Amino acid sequence: VLNAFERINQVLVIVGLVALGYAGWQLAELTMDQTLPALDVSAGTVYLALPFACAVTVVVHLAQLFSPAPAAAKE
Question: What are the pLDDT digits (tens) for 26-72?
Fold first, then answer.
């Protein structure tokens, strides 16, 4: 039962990360033509860190989701 809940949790985390990454991608597209005055770079370039980090984290959670279940601990 615990293993099933762990898999469900991984799926829910992946769905949340995909939604957050998509929103970050939209924000980056919206602000690509705006320049940050202090850094003199595009704000969209800075905001691309969010979808990139979400994509990397999704890969990690997919690896955990499809990894074999650990053997039961023996006492």
Answer: 999 999 999 999 888 999 999 999 999 999 999 999 999 998 876 65
Long-range contacts of 61-66 (CB under 8 A, 24+ apart): 61/10, 61/13, 61/14, 61/17, 62/14, 64/10, 65/7, 65/10, 65/11, 65/14
Spatial CB neighbours of 1, under 8 Å, sequence gap ≥ 6: none
**Cα–Cα distance measured from residue 16 to residue 59, given in angstroms and rounded to the nearest whole number:** 13
Q: What's the pLDDT tens digit per position in 20-35? A: 999 999 999 999 999 9
